[in-house]
């Protein structure tokens, strides 16, 4: 079963360079482990929501807006696509992600016809 | 149909529904199909048991009939998932007429309990699913018990079943590293169920009042399925002790009756004895937990002839243990009451004051009410009256306000 992990954190949180480096190293270790276990298929860190553009089409009009589609306390900072036996394994994998200790991770199963 | 057979089917339904559904989910992976086939099996029992008699092992008979029914439907192509096609290739089960033995049928109820109580489901959904699939309550009954419309409850159940399927919540007993957490979650759901029934007023819907009995039935099944888990037994014992006092905890007007004012001759001796033996068995394992300690406290009350006869020193010590296991200011407050009874009112009052200074329970009406109660016992009536008045401002329900108004009147009445 494939799941998408939406890695969310509050962009406003102040992080010292040492902390940022520590989180980076922990994230690298997580990616290494989950790739080796054949769980993580792909993933990517994202630029902050200040770089986001929201697009919608109503009738013939293409509307473009600066910023994310919704104002939320936490923002999507990255994503990972994982392949797991079941939700328990996906929860375990998400719980090991370093951002889970200060942010939140939403685990969503793929839509399968 | 003779009344005996009707009662036998009803009893089989109470005892076996969860087992039949669990076995069918294990076999087909389809929750709706499992429920439908279980229903068919019970309908079949209503037809054939009056003619052929009640089988020696009703549960095995029902599971076999339900399984045959499922195979039948799968072969007819009524359902088409890959899992079901796989199941259809299973060997043909034995003829239910032969009074099948239990041996061929695994008890899947534990898997079902853990799946129903999975933390990825909302607490409301966990409770509803447990009642529907394990206890066999209808959607309408569960809706009535939780005072929502049948439509709302039906949606809640459908949504939960879809999430189990679509997010692939596993149908299994969790592996060892997850087991302690998940077991605590299951016990929490069963205790919540019990408390819903326990808090139901006398005039409440009968299904709602019946939740206590369902919770006890489920806790009993769980403690049999997990004989090495003393907390499951602890919870069962705790339920017995509370349930034994249920009839005496409210008066005719639906007002709460304090433990010290309850008519102890109306406590259910059978339940107290059962609770005691279950708790003793749990404690012998030497792995205490929060439910066992709470049950031990309830046992002290349940087995005392009156308030004076109560072993308050033991209760105070048990609350100390409970604070250590699950730190909580409400438990601290209960400990303060026990200390007041065991070591003197001033000692208890000092603990209440310390709690008040910590500010953690500042909007909890029982904090000033407890202080006021101790002050009244000490004869400090003006301070007691002020405390009851404070509690009145914080009380949330009419029953609580009526109770506190009575206490305030006691404190201000002339000698």
In short:
The complex is a heterodimer of chains A (113) and B (415). Chain A is an alpha+beta fold. Chain A has helices at 17-36, 87-96, and strands spanning 2-9, 40-45, 53-58, 61-66, 75-83, 104-109.
Name the chain pair with the biggest interface and residue counts per chain: A-B, 10 and 9 residues
Q: Detail the poorly predicted runs of chain A.
A: none
Helix content of chain A: 25-40%
What's the number of structural domains of chain A?
1
Entry keywords:
heterodimer, A: 113 residues, alpha+beta, four-stranded antiparallel beta sheet, 2 helices, 27% helix, B: 415 residues
How would you portray this structure in words?
The complex is a heterodimer of chains A (113) and B (415). Chain A is α+β, with helices and mostly antiparallel strands. Chain A is 27% helix and 36% strand. Chain A has a 4-stranded antiparallel β-sheet with strand order 2-5-1-6. Chain A has a two-stranded antiparallel sheet with strand order 3-4. Chain A is globular. Mean pLDDT of chain B is 90; it is low at 91-103. Chains A and B meet through helix 2 of A and loops of B.
Describe how the helices and strands are arranged.
The complex is a heterodimer of chains A (113) and B (415).
Chain A lengths: L1 E8 L7 H20 L3 E6 L7 E6 L2 E6 L8 E9 L3 H10 L7 E6 L4
Antiparallel strand pairs in A: 1-5, 1-6, 2-5, 3-4
Chain B lengths: L2 H26 L2 H22 L5 H18 L6 H7 L20 H8 L6 H12 L4 H7 L4 H17 L12 H20 L7 H4 L1 H15 L4 H15 L24 H15 L6 H13 L9 H14 L3 H15 L1 H14 L7 H12 L3 H14 L3 H15 L3
Helix pairs in contact in B: 1-2, 1-3, 1-5, 2-3, 5-6, 6-8, 7-8, 9-11, 9-12, 11-12, 12-13, 12-14, 13-14, 14-15, 15-16, 16-17, 17-18, 18-19, 19-20
């Amino acid at each position: 079963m494939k799941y998408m992990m939406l890695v969310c954190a509050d962009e406003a949180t102040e992080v010292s360079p040492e902390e940022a480096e520590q989180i980076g190293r922990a994230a690298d270790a997580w990616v290494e482990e989950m790739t080796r276990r054949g769980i993580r298929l792909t993933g990517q860190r994202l630029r902050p929501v200040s770089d986001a553009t929201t697009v919608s089409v109503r009738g013939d009009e293409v509307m473009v807006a600066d910023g994310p589609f919704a104002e939320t306390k936490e923002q999507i900072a990255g994503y990972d696509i994982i392949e797991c036996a079941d939700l328990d394994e996906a929860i375990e994998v998400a719980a090991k992600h370093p951002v889970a200790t200060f942010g939140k991770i939403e685990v969503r199963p793929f839509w399968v016809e | 149909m003779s009344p005996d057979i009707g009662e036998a089917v009803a009893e089989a339904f109470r005892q076996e529904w969860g087992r039949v559904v669990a076995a069918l989910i294990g076999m087909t992976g389809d929750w709706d199909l499992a429920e439908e086939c279980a229903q068919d099996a019970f309908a079949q029992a209503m037809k054939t048991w009056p003619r052929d008699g009640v089988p020696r092992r009703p549960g095995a008979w029902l599971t076999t009939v339900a399984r045959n029914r499922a195979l039948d439907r799968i072969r007819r192509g009524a359902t088409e998932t890959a899992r079901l096609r796989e199941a259809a290739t299973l060997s043909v089960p034995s003829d239910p007429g032969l009074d099948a033995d239990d041996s061929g049928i695994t008890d899947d109820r534990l898997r079902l309990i853990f799946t129903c109580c999975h933390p990825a489901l909302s607490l409301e959904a966990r409770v509803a699913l447990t009642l529907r699939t394990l206890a066999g309550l209808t959607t309408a009954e569960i809706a009535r018990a939780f005072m929502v419309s049948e439509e709302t409850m039906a949606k809640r159940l459908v949504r939960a079943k879809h999430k189990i399927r679509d997010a692939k919540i596993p149908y299994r007993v969790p592996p060892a590293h997850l087991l302690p957490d998940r077991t605590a979650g299951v016990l929490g759901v069963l205790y919540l169920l019990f408390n819903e029934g326990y808090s139901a007023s006398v005039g409440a819907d009968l299904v709602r009042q019946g939740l206590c009995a369902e919770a006890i039935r489920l806790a009993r099944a769980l403690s049999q399925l997990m004989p090495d888990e003393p907390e499951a037994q602890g919870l069962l014992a705790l339920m017995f002790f509370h349930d034994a006092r249920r009839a005496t905890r409210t008066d005719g007007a639906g007002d709460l009756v304090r433990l010290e004012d309850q008519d102890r001759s109306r406590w259910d001796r059978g339940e107290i004895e059962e609770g005691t033996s279950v708790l003793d068995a749990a404690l012998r394992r030497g792995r205490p937990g929060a439910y066992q300690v709470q049950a031990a406290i309830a046992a002290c009350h349940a087995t005392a002839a009156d308030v004076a006869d109560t072993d308050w020193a033991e209760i105070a010590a048990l609350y100390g243990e409970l604070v250590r296991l699950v730190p909580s200011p409400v438990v601290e407050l209960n400990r303060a009451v026990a200390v007041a009874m065991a070591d003197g009112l001033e000692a208890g009052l000092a603990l209440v004051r310390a709690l008040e200074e910590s500010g953690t329970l500042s909007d909890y009406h029982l904090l000033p009410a407890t202080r006021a109660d101790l002050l009244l016992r000490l004869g400090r009536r003006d301070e007691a009256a002020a405390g009851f008045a404070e509690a009145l401002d914080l009380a949330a329900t009419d029953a609580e306000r009526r109770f506190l108004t009575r206490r305030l009147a006691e404190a201000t009445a002339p000698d």
